[in-house]
Amino acid sequence: MAADHVRGEMDISQHKSTFDGFMAVSTWGSLLTGVTVLYLTLAFAVGLDWLASLIGVAIVGVIAGLVLQMKMSWYVTVGGLFVFGLVCGGVVQLFSLALGG
Predict the structure, then answer these.
(1) Residue 38: Cβ within 10 Å count
(2) CA–CA separation, 67 and 22 (whole Å)
(3) Among 81, 88, 91, 30, which residue's Cα sits nearest to residue 59?
(4) pLDDT digits (tens, 9 = 90+) for 30-60
(5) How far apart, in whole angstroms, are the C-alpha atoms of residue 89 and residue 27?
(6) Please, which residues have CB within 8 angstroms of residue 81's CB and are 6 or more apart in sequence?
(7) Distance between CA atoms of 53 and 35, rounded to whole angstroms?
(8) What is d(CA 62, CA 23) in angstroms, rounded to the nearest whole number?
(9) Which of 5, 7, 21, 50 is a good FRET partner for 40, with 20 to 30 A between their CA atoms?
(10) Which of 80, 81, 75 lies closest to 62 in space, CA to CA?
């Protein structure tokens, strides 16, 4: 049975698609983790204003997407997270103004 094997004739399309999927998930997870840690570092450790941190991190996210040649879904995700950050930051800002802070 082993003698019937000919190197290079096996269909590896499923293996390749699995590996490509794993690499895509790893890239997305790494970028999202990096962007999140960068935002939290800028906002809390450095003491930069939350809006300036958010804008800076959005720019870094877009540049990272361009460098890694991400698909359009990455830019939509960065834009969605930017809008989500604006809404959450605005709500926190309003509550802090309402409480007299």
Answers:
(1) 16
(2) 19
(3) 81
(4) 999 999 999 999 999 998 999 999 999 999 9
(5) 27
(6) 35, 58, 61
(7) 11
(8) 19
(9) 21
(10) 75
HSE-up of residue 6 (Cα within 13 Å, Cβ side): 2
Contact 57, 39 (CB under 8 A): yes
Q: Helical H runs in the chain?
A: 13-40, 50-67, 72-98
82: tokens are: 């930017």
Query: Any idea which residue has 């003698």 for tokens?
Result: 3
For residue 23 the two structure tokens come to: 């690499």
Q: Are 49 and 86 in contact (CB under 8 A)?
A: no
Q: What is the pLDDT of residue 1?
A: 65
Distance CA 53, CA 81 (A): 13
What is the pTM (predicted TM-score) of this model? Answer: 0.81
Look up residue 33 and give its two tokens.
């983790």
